[in-house]
Design a protein that fits this description.
261 residues, mainly beta, twelve-stranded antiparallel beta barrel, two-stranded antiparallel ribbon, 15 strands, 61% strand, globular
């Protein structure tokens, strides 16, 4: 693992330094037309998200999501529509992946890390269409979070499989489904959130299901800045992919900005 790139730290420092007053909490801002930026940065990844729409930025709004992704394994771009409302959100769009060194995979029953790292076929380039419905519901001393998503993987040559870099599963195209349920306790006036998460992901044509479980932690540092940690490794899986089989050991920061007040 390599520490967060120096350039990313410099960028975030400049963004924070440019803010000379505290931001009004996003849910209490006025509805308006806006452009917004959300940057997730951490170990070996950078994921800026550009949002254009109407409503309250980073809270309740309707509009367009543009999300380039930069990692040590490849680059990707997502574009789609999003509806975000109090307690729920819905998004739908497409994500194109261009991997640096991985190739499409020959079919087999189970895959190891060594299998997906072999470079024996055409370079992996694919397009995933995805729809996701999520809910964030206040419950007791915290918040219940749930997501269900369906994905349709395309541009994979006939007779080959592909390791889907975002979903972290080996896919016999086209279908993949995913469901996640978690509960985050809140402490210190919502400054600290942490709790367990359980996730299932399935590939119907492989008759394969992955069970992942772990936890999330979020620490609000300011109106714009949040520290985040994710540890959701695979617990039960046909494919022994280790950390490549789930969102394990993702530690980073999130910065939010929007036009307007």
């Amino acid at each position: 693992m390599t520490l967060l790139p120096t350039a990313t730290l410099v960028l975030l420092h400049g963004l924070l330094a440019s803010e000379e007053r505290a931001v009004t909490p996003w849910p209490r801002q006025p509805a308006r037309w806006f452009a917004a930026l959300e940057i997730d940065a951490g170990f070996l990844y950078l994921r800026p998200r550009f949002e254009f729409g109407h409503g309250k930025p980073h809270s309740s709004w309707v509009g367009l999501d543009l999300n380039p992704i930069f990692t040590d394994e490849g680059i990707a771009g997502y574009a789609g529509l999003r509806i975000a409302q109090p307690y729920w959100h819905l998004r739908a769009g497409g994500r194109a992946w261009y991997t640096f060194y991985r190739t499409f995979l020959l079919p087999q029953y189970s895959f190891s890390v060594e299998d997906i790292e072999q470079q024996i076929g055409p370079r992996s380039r694919f397009l995933t269409w995805e729809a996701e419905l999520g809910a964030d519901l206040p419950l007791g001393p915290g918040e219940l979070e749930a997501e269900v998503a369906g994905s349709y993987v395309t541009r994979v040559p006939d007779g080959l499989f592909v390791y889907e870099e975002t979903l972290r599963v080996v896919v016999d195209p086209p279908w993949v489904w995913r469901a996640r349920l978690g509960y985050l306790w809140e402490y210190f006036s919502h400054t600290l959130q942490l709790g367990p998460v359980v996730e299932l992901a399935g590939v119907p044509r492989r008759e394969a299901v992955v069970l992942r479980a772990g936890g999330l932690v979020r620490i609000t540092l300011s109106g714009h800045l949040e520290a985040r940690g994710t540890f959701i490794p695979p617990i039960v899986t046909r494919d022994p992919l280790g950390t490549r089989g789930g969102d394990a050991f993702l530690v980073g920061i999130r910065y939010r900005w929007a036009t307007g007040p």
